Structure to design on (680 residues):
């Protein structure tokens, strides 16, 4: 065990290790929804699902992970407390994770056998004299070198900038190479000044002309506009001029009395000439600028520095003529300090350029990531929300699957292609296998008997029931309805591989669940009016039908016509309507399976050495998917697919933008997005 605790195995530690082996808490990646879709009963195998890595002792890996998912899983593993272990089912290579402590095939039998091995490993290896540490690659800090003037120049070794010749400066970074642009560490100026990197012989005016600083944190200097990484305030331009005082404070050596606006001097510098055209901050006299502007420390408007005569007069007052003078007279929203007018910057001025929230307030926007293992959202979904206070201002969505290249080589056999397409969508493999079979048969000019077609349709309907129950379980977990999560997940596992007779026996329990859902007023209060979608030509599947749109690819399928299929629609178009629609479609699917009276998993027919083009559409649990392919001498040589998830992703902005965070997450979850179908 890589994650064992160090220590000799004493009698007490053996007791502790044995207890830990019996009480396994697992953090599941990509997520419990993928595990249920694969038919894995984690609770039945003795794994208590944990919502966070900090509450887990075992990382449970379901199926192969993509590169970014592997990195995220390694971070989750690093966050787990010791002793920790890895259980992998059908996962293959786990790098950058360490090797799994127990492995097995992606079946319930494989899970049970792997759990027995895992318990033995934990009981015997939870404490070891010598242990090995694990560092997630994404969390490792490394040093890279960048140019102060050209932050896009990033090198792994020290040297000079190829654009301007400046010496590259080091910075620490983590994660992927060349992420972000930190300012150089070498600074010029006093501790109170906004530091800036300089190279000998470099023109200072040209450097500051394109730099930005924070009014509250002047040590933050960037080459591009944006927000302060410390307080989030909008960066302001650093004033540029040919003078060495432009855009930054002067050295600490000051001249003047304590009560006067202090001013910095440089040896052998003509004081009268300097003060004649300089500006200072009433609250921070060490800040001296050659042009009018705002103080980089407090944001106040800079005022002209006192002339030589004013200094003399001030010294007289200091001597007693006007001792105790406060120097603060209200004047047009500002103040007078020692005869110098100062205008204080209000919060209204500081937020003037920021966009308004729905409530009229102006706040700094922040980016918050959710996923890929966020409870209540589909496993593998990266959701990046821009928050304006507690409201969603913008969103970006990324998936972990994609379908950029459907072929693993130049050509694939029909059976291998059908298997490959089904594996690309672990949440609904039967529907995509059926899609491949229909396109292959059309390209070959062949078909299957009507009774086989009806049995295929029944298998697709069984998967639709399983998928909708899985969505109900996920919604129950997200919204806190534990009874809904438990009952829906249990029924999903039972119906996934059930026969026609077993499905008929489960129908009363499924109907009872629907009735309880309808009789729960809190559900309507929680979902009513959330994520409302109007009539839209792009909405797919249950999302469209819940808005009253008659759109279902099954209506054009002869097999479904023989079963008496008719499109069912709802009203409202909100999250509650989508829940009700899925419940109604489960009842409809139960009826279609009973009419078919048989189930048959789709397998490609005899294609032989046929050549041709095929095009097919199948109504998956999330909407219509279309596949176009080319057969050449019995091999699939090209293929393109369009899935319903693209339309779902396009709908996220409509259901989430301007909504409070909790309502936005509920609305997004109600769309039932499959991260494995997002095009890459």
């Amino acid at each position: 065990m890589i994650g064992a605790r160090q220590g000799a195995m004493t009698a007490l530690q053996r007791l502790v290790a044995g207890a830990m082996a019996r009480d396994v808490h697992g953090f599941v990646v990509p997520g419990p929804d993928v595990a249920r879709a694969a038919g894995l009963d984690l609770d039945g195998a003795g794994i208590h699902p944990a919502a966070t890595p900090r509450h887990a002792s075992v990382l449970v890996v379901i199926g192969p992970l993509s590169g970014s998912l592997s990195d995220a899983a390694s971070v989750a593993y690093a966050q787990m407390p010791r002793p920790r272990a890895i259980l992998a089912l059908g996962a293959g290579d786990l790098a950058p994770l360490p090797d799994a402590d127990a492995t097995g095939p992606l079946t319930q039998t494989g899970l049970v056998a792997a759990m027995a091995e895992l318990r033995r490993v934990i009981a015997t290896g939870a404490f070891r004299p010598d242990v090995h540490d694990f560092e997630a690659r994404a969390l490792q800090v490394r040093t890279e070198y960048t140019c102060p003037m050209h932050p896009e120049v990033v090198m792994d070794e020290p040297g000079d900038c190829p654009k301007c010749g400046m010496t590259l400066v080091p910075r620490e970074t983590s994660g992927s190479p060349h992420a972000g642009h930190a300012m150089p560490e070498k600074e010029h100026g006093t501790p109170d000044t906004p530091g800036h990197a300089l190279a000998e012989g470099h023109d200072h005016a040209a450097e500051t002309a394109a730099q930005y600083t924070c009014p509250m944190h002047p040590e933050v200097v960037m080459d591009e506009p944006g927000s302060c990484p410390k307080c989030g305030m909008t960066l302001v331009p650093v004033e540029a001029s040919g003078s060495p005082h432009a855009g930054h404070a002067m050295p600490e050596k000051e001249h003047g009395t304590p009560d006067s606006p202090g001013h910095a001097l440089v040896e052998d510098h003509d004081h009268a000439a300097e003060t004649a055209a300089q500006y200072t901050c009433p609250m921070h006299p060490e800040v001296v600028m050659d042009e009018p502007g705002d103080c980089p420390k407090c944001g106040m408007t800079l005022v002209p520095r006192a002339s030589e005569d004013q200094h003399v007069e001030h010294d007289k007052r200091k001597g007693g003529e006007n001792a105790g003078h406060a120097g603060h007279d209200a004047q047009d929203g500002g103040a007078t300090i020692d005869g110098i007018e100062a205008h204080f910057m209000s919060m209204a001025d500081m937020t003037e350029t920021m966009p308004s929230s729905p409530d009229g307030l102006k706040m700094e926007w922040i980016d918050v990531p959710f996923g890929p293992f966020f409870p209540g959202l589909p496993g593998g979904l990266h959701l990046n929300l821009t928050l304006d206070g507690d409201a969603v201002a913008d969103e970006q969505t990324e998936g972990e699957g994609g379908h950029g290249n459907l072929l693993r080589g130049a050509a694939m056999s029909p059976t291998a292609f059908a298997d490959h397409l089904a594996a690309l969508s672990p949440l609904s493999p039967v529907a995509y296998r059926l899609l491949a079979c229909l396109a292959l048969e059309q390209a070959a000019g062949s078909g299957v008997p009507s009774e086989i077609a009806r049995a295929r349709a029944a298998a697709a309907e069984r998967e639709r029931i399983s998928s909708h129950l899985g969505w109900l379980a996920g919604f129950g977990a997200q919204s806190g309805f534990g009874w809904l999560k438990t009952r829906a997940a249990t029924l999903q596992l039972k119906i996934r591989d059930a026969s026609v007779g077993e499905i008929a026996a489960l129908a009363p329990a499924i109907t009872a669940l629907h009735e309880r859902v309808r009789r729960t007023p809190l559900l309507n209060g929680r979902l009513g009016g959330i994520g409302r979608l109007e009539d839209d030509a792009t909405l797919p599947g249950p999302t469209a039908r819940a808005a009253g749109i008659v759109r279902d690819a099954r209506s054009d399928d002869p097999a479904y016509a023989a079963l008496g299929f008719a499109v069912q629609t709802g009203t409202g178009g909100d999250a509650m309507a989508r829940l009700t629609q899925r419940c109604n479609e489960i009842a409809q699917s139960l009826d279609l399976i009973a009419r078919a009276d048989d189930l048959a998993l789709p397998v490609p027919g005899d294609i032989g050495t046929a050549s041709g083009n095929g095009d097919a559409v199948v109504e998956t649990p999330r909407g219509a998917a279309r596949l176009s392919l080319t057969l050449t001498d019995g091999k699939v040589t090209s293929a393109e697919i369009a899935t319903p998830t693209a339309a779902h992703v396009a709908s996220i902005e409509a259901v989430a933008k301007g909504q409070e965070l909790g309502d936005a997450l509920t609305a997004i979850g109600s769309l039932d997005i499959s991260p494995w179908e997002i095009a890459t």
Notes: The chain is about 35% helix and 15% strand. Confidence is low (pLDDT under 50) at residues 176-209, 240-276, 307-345. The radius of gyration is 33 Å.
